[in-house]
Design brief:
GO terms for molecular function: misfolded protein binding; protein-folding chaperone binding. By secondary structure, this protein is mainly α. Helices cover 47% and strands 4% of the residues. The protein contains five helices and two strands; from the N terminus they run αβααααβ. It has a two-stranded antiparallel sheet.
Length: 106
């Protein structure tokens, strides 16, 4: 049971440009427009019958948050990853407690 709690989970983000329906060379204005267009289309309040609407909307918000920040966007464009070191995308069991962050990878 402890082993299951200590498993490292890696969260991979989808391509933010595809999520927003924009080109990789999009301007700040095009990023904002892509966000507005997709967020209206997939907002959970407008898609109450779609059980995945909230998940889709969260991906749209996360993509926008990444691309509107010039440094995070630059890092993604260079590496294909928002955080190439993996520091922000790995969550370790018991990470919020003293002695936490146990990594059972060998």
């Amino acid at each position: 049971m402890l082993l299951a709690l200590c498993t490292v989970v890696e969260l991979k983000i989808p391509n933010p440009y595809k999520v927003l329906g924009i080109q990789q060379d999009a301007t700040e204005e095009q990023i904002k427009e892509g966000f507005k267009r997709r967020s209206k289309k997939y907002h959970p309040d407008r898609n109450k019958t779609d059980p995945k609407a909230k998940e889709k909307f969260e991906k749209i918000v996360n993509a926008y948050e990444l691309l509107k920040d010039p440094e995070r966007r630059r890092m993604y464009d260079l590496t294909g990853d928002e955080d190439p070191t993996g520091q922000q995308q790995q969550h370790h069991g018991f990470g919020g407690f003293p002695g936490g962050g146990i990594n059972m990878k060998t």
